[in-house]
User: Fold this.
Amino acid sequence: MSSRLSYAVVLVPSTNHALQAETILTRQDIHCKLIPVPRHISSECGFCVRILQADKEHVSHTLGAANVHIAGIYDL
Amino acid sequence: MAKIVDARRLACPQPVIQTRNALQEANEVITIVDNETSQNNVTRMAQKMGCTVQPEEKSDGLYLHISKSGDVQVEQQSRPVSSPAADEPLVLLVPDALMGRGDPELGGILIRAFFHTLGEVQPLPDTIIFLNSGVKLVIEGSNVLEDLQHLSNQGIDILACGTCLGHYDLKDKVRVGEISNMYTIAETLLNAGKVVSL
Assistant:
């Protein structure tokens, strides 16, 4: 794992939302990766979208414009 | 001071495992082998980790002088690479590009999650074998390619079945690991201490 980049995760209500978010962000050339929700954020099994911290605002705006419901963005 | 690994009379994959473990503790390792297969395997693994390898033939064996090059980035491990017992290699078998049965879309997500998670949990496998549709994960465009390359850079052997790659006509699209054959795959599975099959 790259230790020099600062990441954040976008939490979503379902796996389908995660896939949808990933598709939209990828189309906009925004760096993202589908990963399991880190254990310190949730003990439940689920997926989230890892993004660069620097892209938080851009991601929030892009997903909002595409009507993709997100549950929050958390720094890792 | 160089760490010495005497791998003479050791069967595959012991020379590779012991050399790799030694490289976690020392910047200079001298591995002594007594056959060409061991020489090739150890050399390949060390070069994949960014080390230089200088062979020196002596009367009692072939001495491989392995050195971590200062100007080449070597991925540092802060945890053990292989399972606790060095003579019991951990082998991960991936017979499909999906994980689990049922919804293929979910299967694709699960396997992506698995390979991402391999970078964060321990122990790491010593070898990962890809069979049948599993070989689709080592080719260009695979969405686990980056994770596999990261694992490969840490010295983990990645083997993809050549017959399977040929069947899917993907041999020229392999981007990580090496194209292997059933002899090596069978040997690796049978000599493993533990095989985890997805």
